Amino acid sequence: MSDSRPLDEVRWAIVGTGAVSRHIAADLAAVPEAGRAAVLSRSLARARAFADEFGFSRAFDDIDVLVADSQVDAIYIATPHALHAPMALQAIAAGKHVLVEKPLAVNATEARRIAEAAQRHGVFAMEAMWMKFNPSFRAFVDQARAGRIGDIRAVRGYFGLPLGPADSTLWSAELSSSTLLDQGIYPVTLALELLGTPSGITADGHVRADGVDLTEYVTLRYDGGQVAHLAASMVQFIEPTASVSGTAGWMTIPAPFMQATQYATHATDGALTAKLFSPEISRFDREGHGYVPMLRTVTDAIRRGDTEHEWHPLRASVEVFDVLDSIRSALASESPRVGG
């Protein structure tokens, strides 16, 4: 069981020293209450170099030692997908708070295990869905929910971006590489945030012979007639923008929508064309690499003794994974297998 006393400072460790970890480390420095305690890498030399560069106190190459360290309160896990759940569960069992780079896990079963373990041990646990803490995204969602464009009828979210050489870890079946988990998770999260859990799912796309999904086109259907059109790819460009359409207009987020600093509102406001083609632009500042709002919010939540945050509770992650698993099942039955 975690010590639930209020903390003056949350002492963070980062697991992994890749590109995301570098952004996280830099943005942690912008949160005064976030201490930089430790770094873990498979290579102790890499961990030490990372710690020296970003001002972390210590470096490790053994996760057993890290999770047992009394000088660490919270751990950010930024490893390949297949390691997220095992490492999160080990840290939680040791009483550490965890923030897990998306995806939280590789399927709904693993996501539920993390949620159950966090509740059992009384620690904070969350998927690092930084999009939900982006001020522009929060305002976009709040305005849409408040009826700014009338009743929501449709959501669109795309994210197609070719990734890395074919021998990189981004393409590894062994490490649970997946377009859905890397990119499709953003459009799915957006759709569920605005429309909730769908009543029907159809999906098509391309899956590699070893099971790694490369591209998917997804339709989520709802009992009230609403629909979400989603797409993702790591072998082709699909414009990474998003929109929500309602009975009184529509709202759009420019590329890349998960980290955009503005959105446009096309609303009738009682006159059919007054605002539709002269949209209202809402602009916001970006802090650091864009992770600062999430890191500050989570650090404050841990300091208060909270175990979840209302903007992205674990049940929301589990609901997303239920949909992701259904999309994978649909792809397995409908999509052609491609070599590679």
TrEMBL record:
A Pfam family of this chain: GFO_IDH_MocA_C3
Oxidoreductase listed as a keyword: yes
Domain annotation GFO/IDH/MocA-like oxidoreductase: ranges: 144-251
Gfo/Idh/MocA-like oxidoreductase N-terminal domain segment(s): 10-126
Keywords, comma-separated and alphabetical: Oxidoreductase
Keyword Oxidoreductase: yes
UniProt xrefs under InterPro entries: Gfo/Idh/MocA-like_OxRdtase_N, Gfo/Idh/MocA_domain, GFO_IDH_MocA-like_dom, NAD(P)-bd_dom_sf
Superkingdom in the source lineage: Bacteria
MF (Gene Ontology): nucleotide binding; oxidoreductase activity
Family to which this protein belongs: Belongs to the Gfo/Idh/MocA family.
UniProt protein name: Oxidoreductase
